[in-house]
Amino acid sequence: MDPVRNPFAPGAGQRPPELAGRDRELDAFEIVLERVARGRPERSLVLTGLRGVGKTVLLGELRSMAVRAGWGAGKIEARPDADLRRPLSAALHRAVRDLAVRHPDGERVAEVLGVLKAFALRSAPADAKLRDRWQPGIDVPVRTGKADSGDIEIDLVELFTEVATLAADLETGVAILIDEMQDLRPDDVSALCAACHELSQSRSPLVVVGAGLPHLPAVLSASKSYSERLFRYARIGQLDRADADFALLAPAEREDATFEVDALDALYERSGGYPYFVQAYGKAAWDAAARTPISAADVKVAAPDAEAELAVGFFGSRFERATPAEREYLRAMAELTDGRDEPVGTSGIAEHLQRRASSLSPARDSLLKKGLVFSAQRGQIAFTVPHFGRYLLAQT
Known about the structure:
Layout: H1 23-37, E1 44-48, H2 55-68, E2 72-77, H3 85-100, H4 106-121, H5 152-169, E3 174-179, H6 186-202, E4 206-212, H7 216-223, H8 227-230, E5 231-235, H9 241-254, H10 261-271, H11 275-288, H12 296-319, H13 324-337, E6 344-345, H14 346-353, H15 357-369, E7 373-377, E8 380-383, H16 388-395
Parallel strand pairs: 1-4, 1-5, 2-3, 3-4
Antiparallel strand pairs: 6-8, 7-8
GO molecular function: electron transfer activity; heme binding; metal ion binding
Protein name: AAA family ATPase
Keywords: Heme, Iron, Metal-binding
């Protein structure tokens, strides 16, 4: 098989050749775009799921849908070591520029950009030296008096209102997409929820679309109790058999190739339907096959190559971030679940390691902060990375 024509492309946030199994989410967002643009009430959206299920890819697709609909749209990735002001300013700058090309009142656009610039400049402390102050690259005078109080909750409500009003002038909307939303600082989470709440009450045409790990709803709920009603939650999981097959067959057939049924059986068994793994095994099977149709024997030959690539780029890079104590904790989780993607009790981990539960708390808390595990429910912990337990057992 010609490797140049190989359609499969595993990569972080990289759109697969066929976005299979996400029609429900795409159709739902299409309705959100239409309703908000018409002044109808609609909740912001939160996507949750394990790593490798395509949340980042889906966010990118939703952003593209918003742009095609004439919306202003900006996307950011939250980081635990950074506050929200700077990346959100850049995302909103992009969104306002999307709207500015069609807005008839240049002075009004400049006013909103001036407010945005004032908001952005508060990312540095008031006593910061000039060289330490971030310059947002917004070439208009600062407009003081809005979104510059220094209180992120007040400022975010005022800024969102300004940007949403600009979109309303064009009978369109603004979408702010936030990846890794669980990594936002507590104050920023609280401010974001408050701003979304204020906008939903006034039916302003601005929506937030967040994506994060399965415990993100708990993070939002801990910040604002009303967040359970503020957002519409969608759990993104692995593909079912029909969608996984389609994700392989459709791209292959566009390249005049196909898979035998037993090859599809083998690929689904190995990938578990996780989109990233579907791409990884599909790419390796294509490269290993001498001709079409790709067979189960080809998949068997290709599997070690796919697993070696996953071991380095998907699993290994995460495992290397763990300290020896954290690795011990991770291996105990894998042993107790026999490598399955299941939660395990924290008390069971302590018993397995013959340690006091309190002595394991630092390792567990650090793993939570690093995004390698999440609290499935009280007293239970699970891997954020599918098949991670299986990988760990294979290394020992």
